[in-house]
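Assess this one:
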Amino acid sequence: MTERLTYATHARATLALGLPIVGSHLAQMLLHVTDTLLMGRYGVEALDAVVLGGSSFFVLFILGSGFGIAVMGMVASALGRGDEVLVRRETRMGLWLSILYGLVAMPVFWWSGAILRAAGQNPEVAALAQEFLRIAGFGLIPALLVMVLKSYLSALEKTQVMLWVTLAAVAVNFVIAWVLIFGHFGAPQLGVRGSAIASLVTQILTCILLALYAAFQRESRRFHLFRRFWRPDWQSLARVLRIGLPAGLTGLAESGLFVGAAIMMGWIGTVELAAHGIAMQIVSLAFMVHLGLSNAATVRVGRAEGEGDTVAMRDGALAATVLSLGFGAAMVTLFLSLPQMLIGLFLDATKPDAAAILAYGTTLLAMAALFQVFDAMQVIALGLLRGVQDTRGPMWIAAISYWLVGMPISYGMGFVAGFGGPGLWLGLATGLAAAAGLLMLRFWRGPWLCAVAA
């Protein structure tokens, strides 16, 4: 019988696995921030086009990323069972599905201008966004392959390489974008096309580096991930599809709630939307920590599930939950005690609207403190459930919590009750609270823990 580990041991193992993933997520955010900063210096219309194009890319990426999410828990479980053949097959079919999905999505990028104009976007901005997406869209397949490879390496507990590769990608993207957007060193000044080329090159380079590591790293090499890559495994493909598609739809439901809130904030006013964007950036930075811990929880719970060790599954899940709760409590304290300082980091005090944005953003950050713990718990619960390959139920919980609870309350409190932006954020908090409660209940009452309860 396996010796039971202490909660402190589980916590240390979760942090050792999760902190490099947190760093990788933060570096990925930095990648998008640098693009925005560079385009902001190039021109307002170009910036609008890249933001619009990037948002469109992100929506399709989130849906397709479900296959990578599925691979993390599935591979961890297979490793727990000692089934090395299944590790290879399920990861390979995750890569297959990512490629197929990317090919299906390509026409959306190619004719994105017409789609964006039909959605009411400015024709000039829509045309520039299409110019961006016709190049950047080719990066969807490598971006999704990176997602699968990161999940595979996370399941193998090889997470530090992900951090270093992502940091290298930030540097490469910045240099290429700076040269091609502005036409430095004799290069043509390409504007939005330069930004798109930089993104595409960065995605391809990241994919190549992680694939080489997965193929040749000593411990990973034994799985022969790319040997006879063309050979299908229809059973594994169906399983990755069955688990991955609901995971992608869950992410789409959550991100859609926040996109909807941003749209409604824009109805209130430009100052309010600017404050919302800054506050959301700060909240997103904190969320990356919870997401990294959630990924670590997926791997550790998946490994315990594969080993049939329900005690380790429960103890590891509890350790990850407590860690995330502790960080969430720290963020609540920070948001309530230093809101003006945090918002001020993103503002130029000489601009005319800076004082108004600072005041409104401070209010929103106080509202953000309300849902820090809820946000932490919903993403940790999702990670725990993905560790036991449960994604269909969470998909419905997310859809109900965010779209039947959170969105109507946001609209009602924001516009019907007249609370404006704080009312919108109260709806976000309510939707996240509903999701957190239901998802946590689903994991802790699930059949995978029945042996512990007995």
The radius of gyration is 22 Å.
